[in-house]
Amino acid sequence: MMRGLHKVYHRLSLLSPSSLSPPLFLSLKNGRFSSVRRPGHLRTHSSKAAKPMTASRLHYLVPVNTVTAENGGGSGTNGSVSSSNSIAMEDEDNLAGSYRVPPPEIRQIVDAPPLPALSFSPQRDKILFLKRRSLPPLEELARPEEKLAGIRIDGKCNTRSRMSFYTGIGIHQLLPDGTLGPDKEIYGFPDGSKINFVTWSLDGQHLAFSIRLDEDNSSTKLRVWVADVETGKAKPLFQSPDIYLNGVFDNFVWVNDSTLLVCTIPLSRGDPPKKPLVPLGPKIQSNEQKNVIQVRTFQDLLKDEYDEDLFDYYATTQLVLVSLDGTVKEIGLPAVYTSVDPSPDQKYLLITSIHRPYSFIVPCGRFPKKVEVWTADGKFVRELCDLPLAEDIPIAFNSVRKGMRGINWRADKPSTLYWAETQDGGDAKVEVTPRDIIYTQPAQPLEGEEPEILHKLDLRYGGISWCDDALALVYESWYKTRRTRTWVISPESKDVAPRILFDRSSEDVYSDPGSPMMRRTPVGTYVIAKIKKENDEGTYILLNGTGATPEGNIPFLDLFDINTGSKERIWESNKEKYYETTVALMSDQTEGDLHINQLKILTSKESKTENTQYYIQSWPDKRSCQITDFPHPYPQLASLQKEMIKYQRKDGVQLTATLYLPPEYDPSKEGPLPCLFWSYPGEFKSKDAAGQVRGSPNEFPGIGPTSALLWLARRFAILSGPTIPIIGEGDEEANDRYVEQLVASAEAAVEEVVRRGVAHPSKIAVGGHSYGAFMTANLLAHAPHLFCCGVARSGAYNRTLTPFGFQNEDRTLWEATSTYVEMSPFMSANKIKKPILLIHGEEDNNPGTLTMQSDRFYNALKGHGALCRLVILPFESHGYAARESIMHVLWETDRWLQKYCVPNTSDVSVDLETGKDTVNKGATDSENKAVAASGGGDPELADFGHEGFHSSPRSSL
User: What are the helix (H) ranges across 798-842?
Assistant: First the structure.
């Protein structure tokens, strides 16, 4: 076993390679090692754009959310922890104006150095170690950025702003016995380089990546470098020092083993356009045609002609073909190219660009879009479509853009395209059959050859998993009913009728059959892996499932006969102590079907107390070889206690939560603890689906830099992710009973932890981020008897400010006025009597959660004399990135909890006549506890949440 892997992060995430980016990428996150596509537009790891079918269908595809490795600890009793940040004698006048840090037991966890991300080579014989730094300093976020057309651009680098990066690259050989060879460093680039967009060549012999350097407190533009994997030597791809990468949209891609197509800044580009001192005229928007255009609250939109010019300046790209020998050829004219995608046979390029007229009310993803086919050397072949500006996409879920969409290369063909076209005008409210039609056509069809209809769908098209001429899986779904269907089609056999393979509710996780495992083809694409057995002519595939059960997830791998529907379970997670997952197919280099006895699978294994390790499982004997040996990331919390608990809401809905308790906590000695309740509501169409168990009790607890689990180090009980199902069965809309169901779910959770004796009834705080912050404010307004204080981060509190839908609500304010008003905690600011801490990034770019939401909510609270505090984080967006910001958020949260939760033996309420805080100073401790438990209200409720209380039978904005 290679002990040198100690420095690799304990939780990995596999970046599933696409047709021309074959490596497996592994990244730090607080989930386990699972297949993903590239992380959005930042593309820290280079790979092709996520295909709609894989992103929406394969359950092992999840977003990458990088976090820092942590460790920490704590001491004390009942959450009473002494620290240098004691708030007991604070001068309230000194609580503003400077960044603070949380106590050491929290700070040590967050400041633990991050460990490398990993990437397997296309041939699965090497692993990259992509080295990273810890949290960035605030000065990096403070650098100027242009907010244009829904994206943010670093003008100095001519790429997306706030990109993470790697600091170095090492390579290990994966030896046949499962061990790793010695580390080999990629060298030759300047010290202090910031590395992005790392990608393997198709043959695994070279790496391409971008480099930028810090100069004068700002980063330089990006240059493309290439390294020889065998020697480790890196050199610039372009001999000319004047050619820079344009990373605003796409960046570069391997066309073949020795040639890259690179998006560059045009050499003829001059200085940025200057904003006129005096505008040419007023800003005018007109709808004299009386078009119905409803859009959500997008941010960072273009505002005027100057912004349009500035967007063109930064986004315009010159495409360049460059060989490893230095040969350079410009292809096409400069344009705003958003995607370049070589065909599997390397003969064609699928080129997507956007163009004017731009819009001031929708982001660039809805700008006019042109899709063309070129030859690999840049000659124009044909235009597939030129879609107009899409300002009028209805807000109803499953509404889409008119015209061709989801245009991609078939993974099982050399150069065949496929796409979908809506038949309902893109409006989900229109009843029509079929709703979508899938077409296919060669890249260069014969004269007069029309696109071929591949399949017709009555729900909304969700993508295709390709296999070969005889097999492909087509997915469709409908949000309103949560219905999802999987079709089996035979692409090249017209006499074989399509048939439904699975027809189920997407909410019913217990019935999820799993997703097909994909294998790499010789040309670098990924197709469904067909499996063959001895003396068996059946058509078998592998279904990789999460295995949701009432006892928690038990992942599995099934050998599935696609024709008969019969299943054979060939692998399953240990369900007694461990949580294991099937991560990736490692034996995917051969042509044709894979023999069952030649399977090689990468799996993960973890438990409540043992962090994730990775193994290669080999058939037929299912020999398991461990390839990692990571130490515990936070030994201070190694003995924390974790339990998945179940309880019922008063309407009979089954609820679950994960209860964490500090290391060595003994309720008989310490008594009930202060508790932090941290959650996020979710919408469902049925009570049965809402009550299903998701997750596993045996998963290792990952702790991120702003995780609620950090307060285990402060001797808190943490109720993590208690389910808050908002259910709308049949024709009922879930949000029409939002407050009622929210409060009922919270009551059931609080009652359960109090019943268990682990949470003090008057010391339960509630918190959440984004929609969880919205939840927090509503609970303090409508369930003051449950919580002593709240922490709400980056939330939206006034739904009249998001009038054309929010979260999963697709009715407008005018269609559901009472729902919008009743759901808005802003409208109930006068009811909030418990201390609430509001935190928000000053540059929040998330639709709906404008920073003004917290500003206005704070003013409403203050106007009613509420005990509240508002913290606006300079330069931060919807999620927080800078070390100074994150440490300050943790300090603010810890201070709030230590002040209003830990010592809470009396309730702070507001005298509505005087507007002053009042406390019953003369009451006994037990009386104050009772008042606190009841929210300072009716003494009849004083016992709520105590042992004697009567028992009763997870999307981001």
Answer: 817-823
**Cα–Cα distance, 518 to 140 (Å, whole number):** 39
Token digits of residue 866: 């509420």
At position 897, the amino acid (one-letter code) is L
Could you give the angle at which helices 738-755 and 771-782 cross, rounded to 10 degrees? 80
Residue written as tokens 């939401």?
853
CA distances from residue 358 to 185, 365, 406, 425 in whole angstroms, order as listed: 46, 10, 21, 21
Please give the model's pTM, rounded to 2 decimal places: 0.85
pLDDT at residue number 25: 57
- DSSP designation for 174: B
Amino acid 292: pLDDT: 87
Contacts of 318 (CB under 8 A, 6+ apart): 246, 263, 264, 265, 266, 267, 330, 332, 334
Residue 174 CA to residue 615 CA, distance in Å, equals: 12
CB atoms within 10 A of CB 290: 5
Residue 330 pairs in a beta bridge with: 320
β-pairing verdict for 146-148 and 223-228: unpaired
Rounded Cα distance between 929 and 935, Å, is 10
Residue whose tokens read 């309407």: 651
Which of 16, 5, 11 is CA-nearest to residue 30?
Answer: 11
Residue carrying the six token digits 């009451």 = 923
Q: What are the tokens at 76?
A: 């004390």
Q: Does residue 431 contact residue 541 with C-beta atoms inside 8 Å?
A: no
Catalytic residues: 770, 844, 878
Closest CA to 507 of 646, 698, 693: 693
Residue of 781, 854, 786 lying closest to 822 (CA atoms): 781
Sign of the dihedral through C-alpha 548, 551, 552, 556: negative
CA distance from start to end of the chain:
44
Residues in the chain: 957
Q: Which CA distances in Å does 664 have to 104, 638, 667, 718, 759?
A: 20, 10, 10, 15, 16
What string of DSSP letters covers 637-706? GTT-EEEEEEEE-TTS-EEEEEEEE-TT--HHHH-SEEEEEE---EEES-HHHHTS--S-TTS-----TT
Residue 583, classed as helix, strand or coil, is: strand
Q: Is the pLDDT of residue 217 over 80?
A: no
Q: Give bridge partners of residue 340 from the DSSP assignment.
A: 351
Token digits of residue 24: 């497996």
Neighbours of 543 (CB within 10 A): 21
Q: Tokens in use for 299?
A: 């941010």
Categorise residue 575: left if φ over 0, alpha if ψ from -120 to 50, beta otherwise.
alpha
Exposed, middle or buried, 95 (CB in 10 Å: 0-12/13-18/19+)?
middle
DSSP letters for 392-429: ---SSTT---SSEEEEEE-TTSSSEEEEEEESSTT-TT
The predicted-structure confidence for 387-434, as pLDDT tens digits, reads as follows 999 999 999 999 999 999 999 999 999 999 999 999 999 999 999 999
- Please give the Cα distance from 258 to 274 (Å, whole number): 41
The three state secondary structure string of 350-382 is EEEEECCCCCCCCCHHHCCEEEEEEECCCCEEE
Q: From CA 549, how far away is CA 555, in angstroms rounded?
A: 10
CB atoms within 10 A of CB 956: 15
Q: Are 581 and 62 in contact (CB under 8 A)?
A: no
Contact 369, 439 (CB under 8 A): no
CB atoms within 10 A of CB 566: 12
CA–CA separation, 388 and 401 (whole Å): 10
Q: What's the pLDDT tens digit per position in 125-158?
A: 998 989 999 899 999 999 999 999 999 999 999 9
> Closest Cα to residue 847, out of 273, 301, 409?
301
Rounded mean pLDDT, 111-125 = 86
CA–CA distance, 811 with 808 (Å, rounded to integer): 9
Helices (H), 5-51: none
